[in-house]
Amino acid sequence: MEFYISEDKGKLDVPKIHQEVTSTYWGGGRTMDQTLMTIDKCVCFGVYADKDEQVGFARLLTDSLIFAYIMDVVIFDPYKGKGLGKMLVKHILERPDIQIVKTVALKTKDAHSFYEAFGFKRVGNSEMWLAIDRAKYD
Length: 138
Description:
Blueprint: E1 4-6, H1 14-22, H2 32-41, E2 43-49, E3 53-62, E4 67-75, H3 84-93, H4 96-100, E5 103-107, H5 112-116, E6 121-122, E7 129-133
Parallel strand pairs: 4-5
Antiparallel strand pairs: 1-2, 2-3, 3-4, 5-7, 6-7
């Protein structure tokens, strides 16, 4: 099976995204209107299988220079465990604008080692914040 990533918001399966995100510890209680707002305000990434079935999602909020925040990284069942999350995060981090951003951040309760493999490090004493910090201050 072939998989690909698209930033075309018109391809997104919004009801499926809403279902998946609201089933997570971070997205519970989000209304459909709130899901729509998050999609509208962010760069979105859909992971698709053959015949354009959406099997994953992530979104990115960035100014493309100083800060980028990765959110809502989800791979839908039964596609988990096939390396699609790694493919998705790698795709986001390889965007030219994200490669020059000073700080790329995210929050997680349970996927630290997954993100640390991409170079993310814990921020201070936070149990959830991780970042790739390229900022150099004298």
